[in-house]
Amino acid sequence: MMRIGHGFDVHAFGSGDHVMLGGEKIAHSAGLVAHSDGDVVLHALCDALLGAAGLGDIGVHFPDTDATYADADSRVLLRQVVTLLQSHQWQAVNVDITIIAQNPKLAPHTEAMRAHMASDLGIKHQAVNVKATTTERLGYIGREEGIACHAVTLLMAQVGAEA
User: Which of 63, 106, 143, 149 could potentially form a cystine with 132 if both were Cys, beta carbons 3.0 to 4.6 Å apart?
Assistant: First the structure.
């Protein structure tokens, strides 16, 4: 049994000197406004994984109304999602990430992001794809008001699982 999941996240720019994307700290003239570390990549990925497994979304498991998750490291949240998936006998097969940002330039960081996600998901580096695009200066992203991300994943039921 296999299932596909899709996730989307967006955060506005605010004060700060870096952004966290795919678990990678990237220097930038602004930070992202969020309850946690604002990692839109890992938030979208968590939503894709949870959605594919039929387990709700990131807001259900890590609500922004819970002080426990204030300034949370999104890699920790991703690893908790992986543990939850395993308890329901699901394993990620691959993920495909599209980051939408006018700035900062992300190409120099995509390999490190892939490595972080592959490690946290327990899958091969080649099974994680990360790409970035701009909106050609159109809309809120083009005006550099924030960053968005789409994530797609394929899950496979572990041997002997009843999906």
Answer: 106
Are the CB atoms for 20 and 36 separated by under 8 Å? no
Residue whose token pair is 């998936």? 85
pLDDT in tens, the chain (163 residues): 999 999 999 999 999 999 999 999 999 999 999 999 999 999 999 999 999 999 999 999 999 999 999 989 999 999 999 999 999 999 999 999 999 999 999 999 999 999 999 999 999 999 999 999 999 999 999 999 999 999 999 999 987 666 5
Helix (H, G, I), strand (E, B) or coil at 91: strand
Q: Is the pTM of this model over 0.85?
A: yes
* Residue 36, amino acid: S
